[in-house]
Protein: Glucose-fructose oxidoreductase
Amino acid sequence: MIDLNRRGLVMAAGGVLAAGAVGMPAWANPERKLGYAVVGLGGYGLGRIIPQFKECQHSRLVALVSGDPAKAKKVAAEHGVPERGIYNYQNFDSIRDNPDIDIVYICLPVFMHAEYTIRAAQAGKHVMCEKPMAISVAECEQMIAACRKAGKKLMLGYRSRFEPHNVEAIRLARSGAIGKLRYFRSEHGFTARDPNTWRMKKAQSGGGSLMDIGIYALQAARYMTGEEPVAVFAKETTDRSDPRFREVEDMIDFQLEFPSGVIGSCMSMYSANRNQFVLMGDKGRIELEPATAYSGQRMWVGGERSDKTLVTPPPGPYANQWVGQLDHMAQCVKDNRETIVPGEEGLRDIRIIEAVYRSAREQKRIVLRG
Amino acid sequence: MIDLNRRGLVMAAGGVLAAGAVGMPAWANPERKLGYAVVGLGGYGLGRIIPQFKECQHSRLVALVSGDPAKAKKVAAEHGVPERGIYNYQNFDSIRDNPDIDIVYICLPVFMHAEYTIRAAQAGKHVMCEKPMAISVAECEQMIAACRKAGKKLMLGYRSRFEPHNVEAIRLARSGAIGKLRYFRSEHGFTARDPNTWRMKKAQSGGGSLMDIGIYALQAARYMTGEEPVAVFAKETTDRSDPRFREVEDMIDFQLEFPSGVIGSCMSMYSANRNQFVLMGDKGRIELEPATAYSGQRMWVGGERSDKTLVTPPPGPYANQWVGQLDHMAQCVKDNRETIVPGEEGLRDIRIIEAVYRSAREQKRIVLRG
Structure:
């Protein structure tokens, strides 16, 4: 006997489901592209995410959520989204009645992540949420609980995990190519220009450069070392007379202590462009610059500065990092396996970020508890 | 009336001393090269300092102090040092009777700096002392007191202060070329290979990579910002099973807080070669790599990574950084003015280094007291 329902697929002993079998739920058909609803037509959702679907093997755009009906209609027409796939923030919850939507991608200002993740899960949809996950650990925990309760996946939009240079750098680090790991350093920043963006309003962003761009350094410190920090120390410096920085930090320098003795040293800023990391082992180093940019990554591997080699990684299975992120989620939903960047991964970063802010505020080393 | 004595030059109102005037002490003759005694014929004294005198305008080598009579005799012969200029550690104090010697250059293991600086001052000689100044703040203070009591100058061998790229970088930073200063980062290290050198014995070196090579990062943080740190935080990581690191640290990462809000972030190590610094302002950055090496300095100045320009500094008045250091001291003695790197400057570094070590040991931020 085969029991099929919306929450999961239970296969009878010895039973094999053919693709497209009668009675199979749509998402379980390996040939079918899963449908995404993109929530938020700001610069990232509209400019970076929506254009990727045409390259995807497992994902397609089926719905849009926007507060601007004219904009939504225009974008829908341009990207082949049917009229029934256009939603606004009032009727958002009716996505539950749209079987085309498998996954909701939250591209909203940070303070809206928790609400829309929870509402999407309650509407019976899987959720991809942009980073940073939320403005607090408490919100992250609520998001994870809501998705778990609904039996839905929650994945974070950490695109660099699907970028071939980063993927290859992780593989090299784990393979022992640079020996025993010793030190990680990353600087991430960009020049923020608009003092009026939600990013500069603490209630909406949760914080400044660290939440926005420094989180790439933190993420990379964790995925490059493969370790979780046990303590942090941080120092912030911000010109509070600058209209951009009335509420959020500009520069913050933080140190991560890893259990093996590896030191992570990171710098985040809103006042200059910087995007690089170096992982040092006792037999060499891996250097990426830019490391987590939208494109143009370059990687050097070698013993010393003078004899390092520019390395071109294998291309990887996806057209680009966004396609990888979108299709990985779709594949994990189809295969009913966990993504490589589930909600817990986003929570870990926010937990560390809260400790970094506390360290800077209290001017002391903060021990992190597992 | 003109009063000339060995302790100083007092010029009567309206009086002008002609070069080589009868009755003028030898050191006051602007045409005369001042005589150096080099103490210690190890790699640095013999390999780096002694060869410089042939390029000097104000300095000459007149004496050697060594525990190896055969070596001393050979080196003396090669460099035109007369027989009467050869000393050992037993008869060192008799340098007081050698009028050729104006300045004693201490190129000894760190634990011997205090003793020989004090004995040289007591013998009536000015002192150039290699960095780090001594193994403790207490020793540094004794050295300064001894030189002050003897009325003799004490200068530290911070050669980078005479290296044209560093000199130009300081000038640019002070000129506002990169705007308001925000952040300084430096990594300094080299691969230490010999577990049996005095550098690896804490009683002789005073510490590990920080005392030896990380001090360049610390010095640069201070001279590039023009500020004194008010607090430090540090984390050390050392593989104590490595025979090189039984007594001294390998890697230490430390953060300096400057009063203006500039953050200094430094890393020191004995396990890889690294020699660079970056000073960031709100309008650009100055980058040197290598920054404080024996040669090959390169400097970039610019707004962002992509539009920075390789800058060749003006050549400066000296043949190289060591010649600058030696001749600056000689000129300051002749002119009876303070050097740009007096004993107090060496003491400041050792005071900060002690706080860095204490921070790493106690795992807390250490406030520095002026």
Q: What stands out?
A: Residues 163 and 320 of chain B are 7 Å apart (CA to CA).
